[in-house]
Amino acid sequence: MVRQIRFYGDSHAAYLNLSALARQRIGIPDGGPHITGRVIRGGSVMGFRRGKTRLRTAQKIQKYLPKADLLVLAFGQVDLELGYYYRRIIKGETITPQEFVDRLANIYEEFIDRLAFPPARIALKGVNLTVLADADFTFRYVNSIITEEVVDPAPDMVDALRNTLLDETAQNAMHLSFNHKIAELIAARGGHYFDINNGICARQRDGRPMLPMKLGQQFMPATFNHHISDSLYVRQLHYVRMLRSFGFKVAFMR
């Protein structure tokens, strides 16, 4: 009997965390698995690498595995929206978006394979469609994060970032490629995958998703961050997609 689902993820995984009040407002029936977890702010797939990393992400996940019947991992958004540009601009790496996606998928795969937990009891959550749509907002936000520890960013560093930033379509293409790769790698090991993108994407008047896919305007944040807007619908969507990925029947949401 499944009693405990544990989730671990970057700050974008916070929507998996439901208080008793949120469960009541959403209409989640009593019973079912108990869902708990930990948000590792700034946590990244890069943090899964062997050796010492600043946030010790891999070690934190390993520590709590005995408490889980099922495990959800939700990482990658920080890597794709911030880490890619940090490596390009601050570290001076010459790497294409697809090469970076491939690198992340390889690190994720290696981590899953050394994790002391059966892959058949793991679900990987894919990253969300990006909120980084407006070019000026994107530049100001990404620049503020990746140069946080740079005392006096040189003008050529600022110019390099402007010239490197992907537009919304290209950024989302990187996200969708990453999701495809991690879905494949966990399926090959008998595990599970979910994302919420077809529930938050922009749609045409007939209800079909706009192509190429992009985030619906109603999920864009009004604040200066790169998280989708929080709402009961978004929390419910995370909850339902997560449970359905493990084969639970959830009748109160289509």
Features:
about 250 residues, alpha/beta, five-stranded parallel beta sheet, about 40% helix, globular
Helix content: 40-55%
Give Rg in angstroms: 18 Å
Number of domains: 1
Strand content: 5-15%
Helix/strand-derived category reads alpha/beta
Show unreliable segments: none
The CATH superfamily label reads SGNH hydrolase
H and E string: EHEHEHHEHHHEHH
How would you state the average pLDDT, rounded? Answer: 92
Query: Which class in CATH terms?
Result: Alpha Beta
Characterize the main sheet: 5 strands, parallel
- Helix tally? 9
CATH overall fold name: Rossmann fold
Description:
It is built from nine helices and five strands, in the order E-H-E-H-E-H-H-E-H-H-H-E-H-H. The chain is of the alpha/beta class and 254 residues long. The chain has a five-stranded parallel sheet with strand order 2-1-3-4-5, sandwiched between helices. Helix 1 (20-26) links the parallel strand 1 and strand 2 (34-39). Helix 4 runs parallel beside helix 7. The radius of gyration is 18 Å and the shape is globular.
Can you give me a brief rundown of this structure?
The protein has about 250 residues and is α/β, with parallel strands linked by helices. The protein is built from nine helices and five strands, in the order E-H-E-H-E-H-H-E-H-H-H-E-H-H.
Chain-wise SSE layout:
Layout: E1 4-9, H1 20-26, E2 34-39, H2 57-64, E3 70-74, H3 77-90, H4 97-114, E4 122-125, H5 135-146, H6 155-164, H7 168-187, E5 192-194, H8 197-200, H9 232-245
Parallel strand pairs: 1-2, 1-3, 3-4, 4-5
